[in-house]
Amino acid sequence: MKRQELTRRHTRQEAVAANPDAAAAADSDGNEVEDVDDEGSKYSRLTLMEEVLLLGIKDQEGYTSFWNDCISSGLRGCMLIELGLRQRVELEKNGMRKRSLATRNLVAKDARADRPTGDVLLDEAIKHVKSTDPPAGVQEWIELLSGETWNPLKLRYQLRNVRERLAKGLVEKGVLTTEKQNFLLFDMTTHPVTDQAVKERIVKKVQDSVLSKWQNEANRMDKRTLALIYMAHASDVLENAFVPLSDDDYELAMKRVRELLDVDPDVESQKPGANEVLWAVVSAFLK
């Protein structure tokens, strides 16, 4: 998909027509839909996985830290949340007794499960969720999609080369580029950031959410931004967004992140407007 230079500003109606699934998901979830302006028109709306990956990629080097062993499972968690926010998957219903998030299975919403999401990785993930019987919980799905299983029959659920596939998608959107770097014994494909404004917008969104736009309660925050904070932390890339801050702002930002990490996902999932899939994924990483 090549970038197209637009000669005029998109209207809200044109943005919905261009990506009805993402727009519907945002609207049905009760969150504000970002305006599609001249800067935003360079690329389709970024998924949660792409935002987390961008926070982890070194701008000039074009790769994530070799020592980061958390981002793989973190990106799989992002996929489940993205599907949850788009109303494609949900947790199975409670019976007579309320059960914890960890004990409820993830199931596809039949009415929308067959419709393409516009993202190949999400389509693969929901296909697995829909075809699996008996269903599995969120924690197990994160492990299965990451390939972390001792059962050879379940290795077919692993989504391979996720980081590289996400990076190539960002190259198509004009956010990253592709280069070859030599590391003495081998050559490696890297993806340096070319559109710095896109990454800066993500960094600013994270910073503002815990500083100037702090809501004091998790359930009052925009769900996508809240998910970005949790999953960036789970992927060990959150602090990258706080590097430019002053010492005082850094301390305040980290204090508020710790407040978010101290909440009880089961309690938060029962509050009005909460997304249970989001909180089930958060619970899986916080336990």
What does this structure look like?
Helix 4 (71-85) crosses helix 6. This protein is mainly alpha-helical. It is globular and about 55 Å long. The longest helix is centred in the N-terminal third of the chain and has 15 residues, at 71-85. The model is unreliable at 1-20, 22-30 and 32-44 (pLDDT under 50). The protein starts with 11 loop residues before the first helix and ends with a helix. The strands form 2 sheets. Strands 1-2 form a two-stranded antiparallel sheet. Strands 3-4 form a two-stranded antiparallel ribbon. It has helices at 12-18, 20-28, 48-56, 71-85, 110-113, 120-131, 138-146, 162-172, 196-210, 223-234, 247-261, 265-268, 276-286; strands spanning 89-91, 106-108, 179-182, 187-190. It contains 13 helices and 4 strands.
